[in-house]
Write a structure and sequence with these properties.
Length: 325
């Protein structure tokens, strides 16, 4: 049997437990939070007062931190790209009501609240040039991305495990930095989003764990391959008006490093935590090339630490067009 057929079989085996997966890792819609729970209600008398408070507190946030928040929002808003990619993975059939396609729809439905909530907050904050931000969002969806996973479910679940952990970290950090300047509303907003990301991360990590039990060598090879290629951020094609595809990403990522919202060190820590969670060290029954892939991923954190010591983050803030003049 070739590796593609085995992958389909593995996907079908996991799919049999989809009802359990959905209840374990996703929340019922009726009781789940909605953006409106965290934003002022325009029907209320004190709406404008609350907006004034939002604007006063937004002014107190550092330029870089606000830039990162805008970049995070645009990343969340490019959700159509992520849904389309997940639906196209081998073993996911969007014409089926249940199973993997149900996971993709339900995950998308939860994620969709993130961009909605952040976008509305930024609009109310009075600190953003909304047209510029919206143009970046349209560009990002228009330009798409290449995660280097192909249609492979194994590579894709490595990517999503990694990425949900990364977004958990960055939203969590923005939450705690906002709290420091007394911006409790924004802290709450980023906190609830971070909690969703953590739950999603647990789901994707469990999928990989399950695959390691069923098809260890191929899963290990996929892991090694993704780490060799490096996990790119979903917004790696980010740009602003007048810019080329991807020209803005380095500036966004530098701002995230300067504010410590998401750093190279976090990348390494995510990798280390996944090695432990998947118990990579003790997986048995690997073929020769999978053994080599294991050696590679096990040694990678130390190697990345050495490289990261030599890396310098530019200290000068970049002038994003996203800010109101
Ligand atoms: Fe999200
Ligand atoms: Fe997410």
């Amino acid at each position: 049997m070739n590796s593609s057929n085995v992958r389909l079989e593995v996907m079908q085996t996991i799919e049999k437990t989809m009802d359990e997966i959905l209840t374990k890792y996703l929340k019922p819609i009726e009781t789940n939070w909605q953006p409106a729970d965290l934003l002022p209600d325009a029907r209320d008398e004190n709406f404008f007062e609350e907006v004034r408070e939002i604007q006063a507190l937004a002014k107190d946030m550092s330029y870089d931190l606000f830039a990162v928040l805008i970049g995070d929002t645009i990343t969340e808003e490019a959700l159509p790209t992520y849904e389309a990619w997940l639906m196209d993975i081998e073993g996911v059939n969007q014409y089926e009501k249940k199973g993997w396609s149900q996971w993709v729809r339900a995950w998308t439905a939860e994620e969709n609240r993130h961009g909605d909530l952040l976008n509305k907050y930024l609009y109310l904050s009075g600190r953003v040039n909304m047209r510029e931000m919206e143009t970046s969002t349209q560009y990002l969806i228009n330009d798409g991305f290449d995660l280097q996973t192909g249609r492979d479910p194994y590579r894709s679940f490595i990517y999503t495990s990694f990425q949900e952990l990364a977004t958990n970290i960055s939203h969590r950090r923005v939450a705690s930095l906002s709290k420091k300047t007394g911006n409790h509303r924004l802290a709450k907003i980023c906190g609830v989003i971070a909690a969703d990301e953590a739950r999603h991360a647990r789901a994707y990590i469990s999928f990989v764990k399950h695959i390691l039990e069923l098809d260890a060598s191929e899963m290990m090879l996929a892991f090694g391959d993704m780490m060799k290629k490096k996990i790119v951020m979903p917004a790696h094609c980010l740009r602003e008006t007048g810019g080329e595809i991807g020209s803005l990403f380095a500036h966004f990522s530098d701002a995230a490093q300067r504010t410590m919202v998401y750093t190279t060190h976090d990348y390494i820590e995510i990798l280390e935590s996944l090695l432990v969670k998947w118990d990579i060290e003790n997986i048995t029954g690997l073929n020769d090339s999978a053994e080599k892939a294991r050696d590679y991923v096990m040694a990678l954190p130390k190697r990345l630490q050495r490289i990261s010591k030599r890396m310098k983050v530019p200290q000068k803030e970049y002038e994003f067009k996203w800010f109101a003049v």
